[in-house]
Amino acid sequence: MPRDCYRYFPGLALVAALMLGAAAPATPPDTVPVAAQAACVTDPATPKRQFRGMWIASVANIDWPSRTGLTAAAQQAEYRGWLDLAKQRRMNAVVVQIRPAADAFWPSTYEPWSQWLTGTQGGNPGYDPLAFMVAEAHARNLEFHAWFNPYRVATHTDLTKLAASHPARKNPGWAVAYNGQLYYNPGIPAVRAFVQTAMMDAVNRYDIDAVHWDDYFYPYPGSGGGFPDQATYAQYGAGFSTIADWRRNNVNLLVQEMSAKIRAAKPWVKLGVSPFGIWRNAGTDPLGSRTTGLQSYDAIYADTRRWVKQGWIDYIAPQIYWQIGHPSADYAELVRWWSETVTGTNVQLLVGQATYRAGASGQDAAWQDPAELTDHLTLNRTYPRILGDIHFSAKDVRADRIGAVSRVATDHYRRPALSPAGVGGTAPAAPNLTSAVRGTGGVILNWQRGGTGSTAEYAVYRLPGDGAVDPCDLADARNLLGTVRASGSTGTFTDATAAAGSTYRYLVTALDRLHHESPASNARVVSGTGGTFSVIVDNTTTAGFTAAATWGTSSYLTTRYGTNYRFAEPQAVSDPAWFSATLPAAGSYRVEVWYPADPGYNSATPHLVATANGTVTAFVDQRTGGGQWRVLGTYDFAAGTRQVVGVSRWTSTQGYVVADAVRITRL
Question: Which fold has domain 534-666?
Answer without folding.
Answer: Jelly Rolls (2.60.120)
